[in-house]
Amino acid sequence: MSKGKILTVLAVFVMVSALVSVQGAGGTIKLGTVLPISGPVSAYGTESRDAMLMAVQEINAKGGILGKKVEMLVEDDENSPDKTMNALKKLVARDKIVGFVGAMTSKCSLAVTKYSQAKKIVMITPTSTN
User: Fold this and answer.
1) Which of 35, 39, 53, 56 could form a disulfide with 78 if both were Cys (CB 3.0 to 4.6 A apart)?
2) Does 49 reside within a domain?
3) CATH of the domain at 90
4) Would residue 129 count as lying in a domain?
5) pTM, whole model, 2 decimals?
6) Boundaries of domain holding 72
7) How far apart are CA 108 and CA 124, in angstroms?
8) Is residue 38 one of the residues assigned to a domain?
9) Which region holds residue 126: left if phi is over 0, alpha if psi is between -120 and 50, else beta?
């Protein structure tokens, strides 16, 4: 497994553990990710998506976190900061996510940092460097 995949899986585990207290009793912990599933850097996005979904599947197969199932919702940003923002807003408003893994690149992560903070969404960026 590549270093990027390992960091992505680790980020999911850390985020889920941190968010258990945020969620009430029972239910599902909803996380979101916005990745370049299409476009020029899609290979990185699809690998990260697959790693995150595998991690969530493994967590849920073992009973979830303190009995809570984890759901990872995925959106495509095509490595565009504007599309990253729109996708994250959709995940927050429609799906009520409590945590966000991503974005894949620094330009997309920087575009949504202030929004994530304002909405009190935990944001982990395992691949961005800025």
Assistant:
1) 39
2) yes
3) 3.40.50.2300
4) no
5) 0.79
6) 3-16+26-124
7) 13
8) yes
9) alpha
Neighbours of 64 (CB within 10 A): 16
Domain count, the chain: 1
- Is it true that the peptide bond before 111 is cis, omega within 30 degrees of 0? no
Crossing angle for the helix pair 3-19 and 42-61, to the nearest 10 degrees: 50
Would you give per-residue pLDDT tens digits along the chain (130 residues)?
Answer: 566 666 666 666 665 555 555 555 558 999 999 999 999 999 999 999 999 999 999 999 999 988 899 999 999 999 999 999 999 999 999 999 999 998 889 999 999 999 999 999 999 988 887 7
- Measured in degrees and rounded to the nearest 5, phi and psi for residue 59 equal -60, -50
Tell me the two tokens of residue 68. Answer: 């809570």
